């Protein structure tokens, strides 16, 4: 019989995109998919737009917006909390987890209305509360982890080791986790290591990963063999069984953009000759850092395509979209004129997947978000790693030391990365023998990635196995 699954991406547009990519894998394997969505607490044009876009481009997937939660019953005494407590309670991460918790009743009602015609519930990494809903309804439940297996190995061990509300460590302390190379405490996400009020709910959510019936990961087996072995051998959580782990990636979405000026410009450039610099949808730099990058690029003499975003005011927590950057004011005087035959600076956004796959692109300076990492690898490009926030520093360690598909841009953890470093690394990757060897290595990894996704490849087979395991669960 045709399987039917409900995917639950939690809150935030960033969590929706990877879930939609997963939805399409289910559809390809003949399943019926409903994505159950949580509306942000306040009206969000961004959410509506993302939903409209997702629904329009994925007609075989049903999108269902869950009704809002019942109003909170205000607990007695909450009004006398002191300032520190209430500001911690206002922390965006704390609020997000509260919202997710409050969504359990609407989610339960929705699933119950569909039963018995739902075979499984698939959760985003932050949606641990939904495990309880699934248990109540006796429904098989899985996680979809949109980042790599190295992250999973580290986080399930770390989240279960810490009974305190955050990891209180000196930044230089070297940490060792099963399945991962040693790295410094300062490479952990800041949300966990700096005593942020968000640490406790994040660690709590991650500590529940082993409770699911399985974990689907957006990676492929041969990219992260050590982390996969540690997870399978149960080394990460010796006191609890680790559920089956299925590498089903790399799922990369996007691409197909045709008409952007930068693609036309790339068409006129020689093969493998352009360094692409882009730092994700949240990555911004102060003017001083933009200047160092500009000087380094110019001195390197290499061709470049650089996405520049306006600096963000560090005080501004609103998450409002940034204005278009004023390039003349931000970049060194005369830079654009002097480099106009070598490079192109685009404002705010570029069609990244298409740029990376363009034959003229030769290397990728990246913030090491998992999306971008997979996009770079599947385009066969060496990565110059410049991590900025969240789990990106850990990803950098994995990229450089485990997967061996990139090198680091030194100084990212100091005040600025110097022009000299930008110049040296860009020249190294484009001109040196080391750079050539790295490109060759990434091309091999790219081939393995595409093999993995083919019928009979490891990721395809893992998904088939997952569906079979699900059948067995349903017949228990
Ligand atoms: C991955 O990329 C998509 C498309 O660029 C974006 O919408 C989404 O937020 C990204 N996801 C993550 C986890 O960064
Ligand atoms: C973390 O991993 C180490 C090594 O396998 C293990 O000794 C330790 O018990 C793990 N921590 C937890 C909380 O499972």
TrEMBL record:
InterPro entries: UDP-glycosyltransf_plant, UDP_glucos_trans, UDP_glycos_trans_CS. It comes from the Eukaryota. GO terms for molecular function: UDP-glucosyltransferase activity. The lineage of its organism: Eukaryota, Viridiplantae, Streptophyta, Embryophyta, Tracheophyta. This is Glycosyltransferase. SUPFAM superfamilies: UDP-Glycosyltransferase/glycogen phosphorylase. Residues 61-84 are annotated as: Disordered. Its EC number is 2.4.1.-. Keywords: Glycosyltransferase, Transferase. It holds the Pfam family UDPGT. Belongs to the UDP-glycosyltransferase family.
